[in-house]
Design a protein that fits this description.
45 residues, mainly alpha, membrane
């Protein structure tokens, strides 16, 4: 049953990887993570 809890982590990792490839490595992984979290929580920054 623990495999189900790992699924969201894998999806997040894949999304971050796709974002990094999309920007051709010109963007930091930390920045990509910040943007991802910003979209998730919709914080007005």
């Amino acid at each position: 049953m623990e495999q189900v809890s790992i699924l969201p982590v894998l999806v997040t990792g894949i999304i971050l990887l796709m974002v990094a490839v999309l920007f051709d490595g010109k963007i930091n992984l930390c920045t990509a993570l910040y943007l991802y979290l910003d979209l998730q929580y919709e914080q007005p920054f």
